[in-house]
Amino acid sequence: MEAIEADHLSKSFGPVTAVNDVSLAVKEGSVFGFLGPNGAGKTTTIRLLTGVLSPDAGSAWIDGIDINRNPLAAKLKMGVIPENSTVYGDMTAEQNVLWMARFYGLDRTTRKERAQDILRRLGLAERKNDLVRTFSKGMRQRISIACAIVHSPPVLILDEPTTGLDVQSRRLVIETVHHMNEAGSTILLTTHNIEEANTLCNTISIINKGRIIATGSPENLKTTFDTTRYVEISFAQPVEKKLFVQEDISRAERWGDKWRIYTTNPDRVVKYLSALAEREHLTIISIATSGLSLEDAFVRLTEGA
Amino acid sequence: MMDLDLGVFARSVMLVAEKNMRIYYYRGPVVVFGLLFPILMFFTYFIGRNLDLIAFFPGFLAMMLFFTSSSVGPLITPWEKREKTYERLLSLPVILESIILGDIAAGAIFGVAITAIVWVVSLVVLHLPLTSALVLVVAFILGAIGFAALGTVFASMATDVPSNVMMLSSLIRLPLIFVSGIFIPLNQLTGWVFVLTSISPLTYLVDLFHAALTNDAVYPPVLDALVLVIIIVIFVLLAKTIQKRNLVKGL
């Protein structure tokens, strides 16, 4: 079943079409990444999915509930961390979490227990009685996350959750995303950080100029444009180029103390190189397969659109 | 057509109102200004002139309720847009109507609380008359809601600069107190001045307080109440329409 679904969503602001016929489906329990350059339409899509804005055309469902027909019921199923938004600076960390928990109908005891647990996990237990306006950006973002997950939502939507954060806060955010996903939440996140998307997401959609231009697993997206990959290998002994002759090998190049063997079928080449080492009594020091990075795929996809 | 869970909606309105009270209203300067400004305005006009306090008190109460109910509301949305908390609020289980009604509720509660304090103190100290407690309650409720709703209309402006909203709010609110029968009782007005006062929504609150306290209203209390109800509906619809149109600005 799809936890988040969008069907032909469109939104314009005057003459500018921010989102153009966007459809997506996020499977229950998955982590879905939304990648795109600045101004591509990521945040507008998130605002349409979270009911902050109404679409000009199309529909969106959260856990099977139409966000435009029944926004309150749909919003009860989500936790949202909007881009650049913050919690209330004139409330303490704990007051913010407890106040937002009440929107979801949690009783007093559950609210208190969950708030304490989450604030402890996010490293904010000692500052829970301090006004949020005295917090750093990273701490504010952690409070924002605490507010979004206090009701253990089946769907968690995060818009650029790690942008501008220090390493410690960034790690905590990523750990929390992992933790929520393991606990059963479906995650949709937008990010500029391609490596983060590569590590966290099962599926990625790339959006540019308001349109989704590619969707797939990170590994599939990497191979969208170029099926050529390479196997990088180093031996303890000197090896001549002429040894790397096999039907799957397109060429071999020396790279420092390694050989880079280009192929469309790295699996068979790895097996061939193992057999070669065995046959020629060579010791393999290291071997790795590589190919296009997700960043390469992202740049080529968004350039071409 | 939107499906609405009334329980969740009511809870969202209450929580927005509670947040507003906590963050924007329960503050020393706000309470002091809310009390002092109308009192100073009144004494500026009253001192040194041999005027009948009883005759002018209904207008004074209406002015207090008008100012206190509509004073902070215009600033809340621009403040929240500026502080970047508005989108966070919209992402919670709320709809635009929850925010507007929550803002109105907070303004109305603040207005009633401050004005009721002044009325009780005046009742004890000055032995003011009371003709109809029911009409007084109706005046308090409709007046507070109506002018808190006016505040949300100002708050709908496409700006995240509170001073811009404050300027517009003052530009409209201040002249209203001079054309609503506060300083010159309605029953002493004639001709075009009387016609002018009938356009001001504040006139009907002033008249309702006259009906409640001194029983010298110009219009029937039912008509005053009806006009205030219509004004509430208009202000709420206007606030919703403008806020929806300006929603994306400042997010």
Keywords:
heterodimer; A: 305 residues; alpha/beta; 6-stranded mixed sheet; 4-stranded antiparallel sheet; 14 strands; 34% helix; elongated; B: 251 residues; mainly alpha; 76% helix; globular
Describe this structure in words.
The complex is a heterodimer of chains A (305) and B (251). Helices cover 34% and strands 30% of the residues of chain A. With 305 residues, chain A is of the alpha/beta class. The interface between A and B is medium-sized, with 33 and 29 residues.
Most strands sheet of chain B: none
Compute the gyration radius of chain B: what is it? 18 Å
Strand % of chain A is 25-35%
- Biggest sheet of chain A, strands in spatial order? 6-7-8-3-9-10
Order of helix and strand elements from N to C terminus of chain A? EEEHEEHEHHHEHEHEEHEEEHEH
- SSE order of chain B, one letter for each helix or strand: HHHHHHHHHHH
Topology, pairings included?
The complex is a heterodimer of chains A (305) and B (251).
Chain A: E1 2-13, E2 16-27, E3 31-35, H1 42-49, E4 57-62, E5 65-66, H2 71-76, E6 78-81, H3 93-102, H4 108-121, H5 137-149, E7 155-159, H6 167-182, E8 186-191, H7 194-200, E9 203-208, E10 211-216, H8 218-222, E11 229-235, E12 249-255, E13 258-263, H9 266-280, E14 284-290, H10 294-304
Parallel strand pairs in A: 3-8, 3-9, 6-7, 7-8
Antiparallel strand pairs in A: 1-2, 1-4, 4-5, 9-10, 11-13, 11-14, 12-13
Helix pairs in contact in A: 3-4, 3-5, 5-6
Chain B: H1 6-25, H2 28-46, H3 53-70, H4 73-83, H5 86-91, H6 96-126, H7 133-155, H8 162-178, H9 191-199, H10 201-213, H11 221-245
Helix pairs in contact in B: 1-6, 2-3, 3-6, 3-7, 3-10, 4-7, 4-8, 6-7, 6-11, 7-10, 7-11, 10-11
Could you write a compact summary of the structure shown?
Chain A is α/β, with parallel strands linked by helices. Chain A has helices spanning 42-49, 71-76, 93-102, 108-121, 137-149, 167-182, 194-200, 218-222, 266-280, 294-304; strands at 2-13, 16-27, 31-35, 57-62, 65-66, 78-81, 155-159, 186-191, 203-208, 211-216, 229-235, 249-255, 258-263, 284-290.
